[in-house]
Amino acid sequence: MIINYTYIIIAFAISLVFSLVCTPLVVRLCNTYGLFDMPNARKVHKYSIPRLGGTLFMPSLGLSVIITLLIMYQGIHKDFQIGMSNVMMVVGAIMIYIIGVFDDLKGMKATHKFIIQTIAALIFPLCNLMISNLHGLFGIHEIPIWIGYPLTVFIILLIVNAINLIDGIDGLASGLAFLILSSYAYLYYDLGAYLFSLISISLAGATLAFFFFNMYGKVGRLKTFMGDSGSLFLGYVIAYLAIKYQMSNGHQVFIYREESLLISFTLVFLPCIDVIRVALWRKFNGKAMFEPDKTHIHHCIMQMGLDMHQTLAVIITLFIVICLINYGLYGGGMDITYIYGIDIAIYLIFMWVVNNLKSEIN
Question: pTM of this prediction?
């Protein structure tokens, strides 16, 4: 099936408008029933903020994709195939969404959330949706299933929790997610995988609407946080899109693309490397690896004296710079192993500079 950009625009607009209209209703609901994210020593906000803004991500995505597909059916009279892996993605996404909502409303132990996240992550390898080729990283291409299976589950859990944990200041998780999802909308469209392009752009529309309320909504009126229901769902869908994109013939419908793993790596690199750094730092300092603190990239930058908007601009700029560097290096013929190493070096040097400036200021 060949579709034009009109359907992509329609899907984006439906999701954006639905979220823009419904977010004030969600904020009103939170104000009525006292569903707030309360300030504490670990958080940077100083006021009680409604925390269910992210509950609209899944209904916005579903409504947008369904309506757009119905329009496409009517307009071109072609069958649109939805495979088992897509159905299972929906099942896993609903699981993640439910635990996020429950955690936002009642609270949930981290171990219980992790168990359900793991079950949701296990769905994809069971549907043969997994990392089975490293595309030349360290000279390795095809990898056996006993490596690919746990690697895939680990990567899914890493991305889900990375998006969740980087949601620490206004606009950061939603801003990064919007850029990632918009990129996948284009990438999947270019592949001719239009369903995944619709999924990407629909969620991007909901994320952009949330971004406006989160960044520019007034406290006590329309400002809202996405909560775990939003950040976990975003992370899960992004993980699915990342794993799906790097697959090739022999497992799914895409032709082999040497750069596909590098592209997925590049788009999720920044939040994932930050989670890994923080977890290792805590481990080496005798703390629990998942104990909350203020050592994430946004905390460190703010400790230099920057406000939330300035910190957001710095991190988004770093994300874009890494994407451009990778594009240039790969286009110039550099081996992807060296590109991965350069990305890690850029991040570590950046954090070294930030920590040194922070120490001088404090």
Answer: 0.94
